[in-house]
Please model this.
Amino acid sequence: MNVEASIRNAMEQVAELSDCELVENIEQETVLLDCGLDSLGYAMLVAQLEEELGFDPFTEQQVTSYPSTFGEFVAIYQACLDK
Amino acid sequence: MTLLELLEKQTLEKAAITDQESFSYAELIQQAKSYRNQFSDIKGCSVAIIYGDIKEFIVALCALDGFCKNLYLLPDRHTFPNMVVNDTSIVLWPDHEIIQAEEAVKAPCINTRWFIATSGTTSVPKWIEHQFESLIGSVKTSNKMSKLVWGLLYQPFRFAGLQVLLQSLVSGASIVDLTSEEVKEKLLKMHKFGVSAVSATPGMWRQLLMGEKLSELVLSHITLGGEIAEQSLLDMLKRTFSQAQVRHIYASTEAGVGFVVSDGKAGFPADWLAESKDNLLSMFIDDSQHLWIRSNAVSQAIVNELADKNGFIDTQDLVEVKGDRVLFLGRATGVINVGGNKVHPELIEQTLHDIEGVRGAHVYAKKNSVLGSLVHADVVVCERDDLLAFKKEIIEYCKSKLQRYEIPATIKFVDNLAMTQAGKLRRETMNA
Model:
């Protein structure tokens, strides 16, 4: 499963659901807070990904620090999936 | 007057109907009297009744009201010992086993104190004391009422079910116990026994409305209680049963029966706040939107425990005044906190129910690592193949009606909604 693709797809859906507008060209280095989602958007993103992937890495307490870039966000999910 | 004395006035044929047979008032009374003779040693004791069937339950209530000191209606046998608070000795009915036997303090027992357990909202039942007179305070009697056949959907040892049972008995009507059947079976039995009066929660009504045969019933008395009766549901029931009187009851175990609204509109008239309705009931709304109520039906023990200095009790129900109506928003404690924003699950449920194709919805908090909690909705839909498209439709509709944080972040299509034994939606659900 391509986690990054899942996340990008979920971000699109959540943006629509939460009335946010995503910036174009989100890269690995793009800062999460600059992606266009606000806290509600991220809350929804995490909830949506939990539905799709079956886990929420941020409640597992395996995450020592919160991601700040899109790349880090993806990496956390990837790491959880690889376990 | 005791229940037995009241029933002795009944001259009608059938009082209780079970699958196998029906029983007359005379039979029930006779058996109650023979129980009193047979078990004369428990006169003045405290007795806890375990529900077996409707006939035995009625007989036990008749025998024990005015005969025993305290009467506990047990929701189940297992939690029994924990609830014994101030009694040194309690007799279990119908087993006649004595629990916690120390010295039994017997009392002369004209006014039996009834104890009913609160349902659902918390896991620990709370025992509320009632007087028989206040329990039958709202019973309506008439020639027409005596001809009704009540379908009992609430467990009769709960407050709502006991109200239905006492309404049926004191008015001289008949009652069929439908509490343990599946929805489909309930409907079949309603047809079989010619049920003409039903009292149920809005959630139960939605389930019943999903059944095909409901509209073929000739219901003349429809009552909603226990949860907020929404306009869309009241309208649907009125459309389905044009001959019926559709009423919704506002009551709580703590405050006893509050009032009945029979104008077919959700909530209650705002001018009831200003005037004291029938001089029996006064209400006001405080700054936090809590509805406070003062009623003659509330037992003195509850008033002593919960009331303010003017005798008002905080119902913990949130209300808002909209035009000339006072509308219910939900329980003060059921509120979902989404990143500091308060969301009333009932309000979201009402919005979802307004969508064509939605048969039922249960909205609750889902734990979220980002914001603490998010709004989640379990939704029951009419048969549809394109669920993904319908989900979008639901979200679009919600977006047009709700704040961003109120829109369900996750929606799950389910076959049934989780209900408590009392037929209310489970409010305590908090998904991890």
Notes: Residues 428-432 of chain B have pLDDT under 50 and may be disordered. Chain B is about 25% helix and 30% strand. Chain B has three domains: 1-266, 274-333, 335-413.
